Amino acid sequence: MTILLEAYNLHRAFEKTVAVHHVDLTLSKGEIVALLGPNGAGKSTTMRMLTALLEPTRGSVTYLSHRIPEQIVEAKRQFGYVADQPMIMPYLTGWEYIQFVAGLYGCSADEIKKRATPLIERFALTEAIHKKATGYSHGMQQKLALIAQLAHDPRVLLADEPTVGLDPGSASEMQAIFREYAQDGNAILLSTHLLDMAQHLATRIVMMTRGRIVASGTPEELTQGGARSLESVFFQRTGEVTL
């Protein structure tokens, strides 16, 4: 199985606080991996290290043999990142933003149009795509950010709470796009609090708490073939309790 992303011994400390403890993580071709954990578990810090937005205290990150930071430009060409709060340039139109982002990766206008247009139509953004993004809702910005990242055809997609602000129809369409993207031989790391979505979308689930990975496996493995709910497994492994 082709490994597209490999993180080894990732560790991040902030003065006296350790946010991530020696995490190992791989993503292989065709995988959708859901990263689950309570607030403060270290998910966002892990994502930021994987995207080179934050330097690890120790450890390494490699995309298709390109290691960060030694080969950071080559590594960044391999992945796309959709943040929970997308950084949309408000005074560009949606289409200009897509062109700007994909253009940074050297994509031609024809390539961008070919990849982005079907996604724009699927997300019902056709009427808004030539309007200034300053008038976009949060959900529209989430969809725009995803389209812009997929337009440069990355091998790995890192998505931090990508369905926040989406209506049910758009969230369902996003999940369908994720499945198709993985089936094309790519991989996704999806950070989410939505256990139901993780169970039905992910091929593998990784649970974190207090900066450590405490469980990893397919949904079937973690739930013992459905004998237990993913929610009960999550609460047990992370130490979270219901009210």
TrEMBL record:
<comment type="similarity">
    <text>Belongs to the ABC transporter superfamily.</text>
</comment>
<dbReference type="InterPro" id="IPR017871">
    <property type="entry name" value="ABC_transporter-like_CS"/>
</dbReference>
<protein>
    <recommendedName>
        <fullName>ABC transporter domain-containing protein</fullName>
    </recommendedName>
</protein>
<keyword id="KW-0067">ATP-binding</keyword>
<dbReference type="GO" id="GO:0005524">
    <property type="term" value="F:ATP binding"/>
</dbReference>
<dbReference type="Pfam" id="PF00005">
    <property type="entry name" value="ABC_tran"/>
</dbReference>
<dbReference type="InterPro" id="IPR003593">
    <property type="entry name" value="AAA+_ATPase"/>
</dbReference>
<dbReference type="InterPro" id="IPR027417">
    <property type="entry name" value="P-loop_NTPase"/>
</dbReference>
<dbReference type="GO" id="GO:0016887">
    <property type="term" value="F:ATP hydrolysis activity"/>
</dbReference>
<feature type="domain" description="ABC transporter">
    <location>
        <begin position="5"/>
        <end position="235"/>
    </location>
</feature>
<keyword id="KW-0547">Nucleotide-binding</keyword>
<dbReference type="InterPro" id="IPR003439">
    <property type="entry name" value="ABC_transporter-like_ATP-bd"/>
</dbReference>
<dbReference type="InterPro" id="IPR050763">
    <property type="entry name" value="ABC_transporter_ATP-binding"/>
</dbReference>
<keyword id="KW-0813">Transport</keyword>
